[in-house]
C-alpha cells in the first residue's frame, strides 16, 4: 500500500520572547483542552477564560478591550451584526410584563423585533417622539425596563442624542436601562 496522504498535527512552537505590535489573528471553533478534567470544568473559566471559539479568542478579546477603552465602558461584547447586538441588548434586560420605550425614529428592524418577536414573550413596546423629552418622561411607568435611543435616529432626528444622554442618570436612579444605538 502506498499512502500519499500525510497528517501533520499543528506543532506547538515557542512563543516566549515574541512580542509584536499587531494583534495575532486566532481562528478557532474548538478550543484544545489539556485533559478531560479541564474540559469538564471549562465553565469555571469565567467570561475572561476561553472555552469555545465563538465565545472569544485572544483576537476578539483584544478588539473588545480597545472598544471598551475608546468608549470608556465597563466591558464590550462583540456581536456578529448590528441587529444581533440590538437583540442581545433587549433580551438581556427584558422580562414578561416589562415595557420597552422605543424612539419613533428607530431602525425599522428594531420595530419588527419588538412588535413581533419580543411581544411573544409578553413584553409591550411603546414608541416615543425623540424630539420631545417631556413626552418620553410621561410614558415612563413602573413597568418600564428599557428606553431605546438611537444617535441620531435611523430616519434622522437632530437633538435626540443629546437629550438621551442628559437624562440617562435620572433613569439609572430609577433602575431603568437605556440603550443608545448608533446607526453608523
Ligand atoms: C441603528 C442600527 N442598528 C442596527 C443596524 C443593523 O446593522 P447590521 O446590518 O449589521 O445588522 C443598523 C443598520 O443600518 C442601524 O442603523
How would you describe the overall organization of this protein?
- With 184 residues, the protein is α/β, with parallel strands linked by helices.
- The chain has two domains: 18-76, no CATH class; 82-181, Aspartate Aminotransferase, domain 2 (3-Layer(aba) Sandwich), CATH 3.40.640.10.
- 34% of the residues lie in helices and 12% in strands.
- It is built from six helices and four strands.
- The chain has helices at residues 36-40, 58-71, 82-93, 108-117, 133-139, 160-173, and strands at residues 99-103, 124-128, 144-150, 177-181.
- A four-stranded parallel β-sheet has the order 2-1-3-4, sandwiched between helices.
- β1, α4 (108-117) and β2 (124-128) form a beta-alpha-beta unit.
- The longest helix has 14 residues, at 58-71.
- It is elongated, with a radius of gyration of 22 Å.
- The termini are far apart.
- The model has no long low-confidence stretch (mean pLDDT 88).
In short:
This protein has 184 residues and is α/β, with parallel strands linked by helices. It has six helices and four strands. The chain is elongated.
Here the CATH topology of the largest domain equals Aspartate Aminotransferase, domain 2
The residue-averaged pLDDT reads 88
| Oligomeric state, counting identical vs distinct chains | single chain
Largest sheet features? 4 strands, parallel
Cα-atom radius of gyration: 22 Å
Say how many strands there are. 4
Tally of helical segments:
6
- Based on helices, strands and strand pairing, what is the structural class? alpha/beta
What ligands can be seen in this structure? pyridoxal-5'-phosphate
CATH classification class of the largest domain: Alpha Beta
Amino acid at each position: 500500500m502506498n499512502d500519499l496522504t500525510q497528517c501533520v498535527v499543528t506543532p506547538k512552537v515557542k512563543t516566549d520572547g515574541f512580542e509584536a505590535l499587531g494583534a495575532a489573528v486566532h481562528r478557532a471553533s474548538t478550543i484544545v483542552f489539556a485533559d478531560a478534567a479541564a474540559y469538564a470544568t471549562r465553565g469555571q473559566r469565567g467570561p475572561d477564560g476561553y472555552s469555545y471559539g465563538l465565545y472569544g479568542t485572544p483576537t476578539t478579546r483584544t478588539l473588545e478591550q480597545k472598544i471598551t477603552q475608546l468608549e470608556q465602558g465597563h466591558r464590550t461584547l462583540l456581536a456578529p451584526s448590528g441587529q444581533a447586538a440590538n437583540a442581545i441588548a433587549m433580551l438581556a434586560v427584558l422580562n414578561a410584563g416589562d415595557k420597552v420605550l422605543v424612539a419613533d425614529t428607530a431602525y425599522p428592524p428594531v420595530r419588527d423585533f419588538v412588535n413581533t418577536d419580543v411581544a411573544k414573550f409578553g413584553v409591550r413596546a411603546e414608541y416615543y417622539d425623540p424630539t420631545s423629552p417631556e413626552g418620553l418622561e410621561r410614558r415612563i411607568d413602573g413597568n418600564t425596563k428599557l428606553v431605546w435611543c438611537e444617535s441620531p435616529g435611523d430616519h434622522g432626528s437632530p437633538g435626540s442624542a443629546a437629550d438621551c444622554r442628559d437624562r440617562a442618570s435620572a433613569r439609572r436612579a430609577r433602575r431603568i436601562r437605556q440603550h443608545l444605538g448608533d446607526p453608523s
